[in-house]
Design goal:
single chain; 3 helices
C-alpha cells in the first residue's frame, strides 16, 4: 500500500494499492481495505480511480459519487 498524497488536504483516503484489475483503498476512519475491481465497479471507474490515486487528489470524491459500495465483499 502507498500513502495517498491528499493534495486537497481533506480526503478520507489514507492509502491505496494498485493491482492490474483493481485498486485497494484504505480510508482514515477504518482499518479495512476496500478492493474495487473491474468486475465489481467497472473497468472505466477502476482505471479512473487509479489515475486519481496516483495524482493524489479527487479519489474520495470520485468513490463517493460513482462507485460507493461497489467494492468486493
Amino acid at each position: 500500500m502507498q500513502r495517498y498524497r491528499n493534495l486537497g488536504g481533506d480526503s478520507g483516503v489514507e492509502s491505496f494499492g494498485i493491482d492490474p484489475d483493481a485498486i485497494r483503498v484504505r480510508f482514515r476512519e477504518n482499518e479495512r481495505i476496500y478492493r474495487y475491481s473491474h468486475a465489481s465497479a467497472g473497468h472505466r471507474h477502476v482505471e479512473e480511480m487509479k489515475r486519481l490515486a496516483l495524482a493524489g487528489q479527487g479519489l474520495a470524491s470520485y468513490i463517493s459519487r460513482h462507485v460507493r459500495d461497489r467494492y468486493e465483499p
